[in-house]
Amino acid sequence: MIPRPALLLGLSGLLPFIWGVATLLSPALAQTTLDLIGPRFTGPYVLIAYGIVILGFMSGVLWGFAARGAETAWTGYALSVGPALWAFFFVGGGPTQALTALITGFVILLVIDLQFSRWGLTPHWWMPLRLILTSAVVLCLAAGLWLG
Questions:
Q1: pLDDT value of position 94
Q2: Please, what's the largest Cα pairwise distance for the chain?
Q3: Are residues 137 and 104 in contact, defined by beta-carbon separation less than 8 angstroms?
Q4: In whole angstroms, what is the distance from residue 23 CA to residue 29 CA?
Q5: Better-predicted residue by pLDDT, 28 or 73
Q6: Which residue, 6, 15, 5, is CA-closest to 126?
Q7: Membrane-spanning residues where (predicted)?
Q8: pLDDT tens column, 38-81
Q9: Please, are residues 144 and 95 in contact by the beta-carbon 8 Å criterion?
Q10: How far apart are CA 114 and CA 145, in angstroms?
Q11: How far is the C-alpha of 98 from the C-alpha of 95, rounded, in Å?
Q12: Residue 108: helix, strand or coil by DSSP?
């Protein structure tokens, strides 16, 4: 079972992704957001910016897991920097390309999560949590592609 704090905080981390989609679905919400806090918190801008942040964050999480595995250390550390480097090198070139690169990055991240889990470096509840969160993130990013 996923610990309640991990689940609740993980789900709360979805809010910027959900907000981005909500501003694409509601022109009134998008306009209000523009008026109150600016364009970077609307539509594809928030999806892209927050997606980059989360890929970088997840690299740090994976680095911590890699530190637990002496026999897999080199491979684990190398894999752990992948999501951050992916975001740095491939997210750009306009919303369509950036959102596509982010979707790909989150799918790759899930594969890396699975490998760390197979090595026994993650808690037993890690993959169920990652499946929930990654599914929601990819759906939001795909909605950004479709609605944007």
A1: 95
A2: 54
A3: no
A4: 5
A5: 28
A6: 6
A7: 46-67, 74-92, 98-116, 128-147
A8: 999 999 999 999 999 999 999 999 999 999 988 889 999 999 99
A9: yes
A10: 26
A11: 5
A12: helix
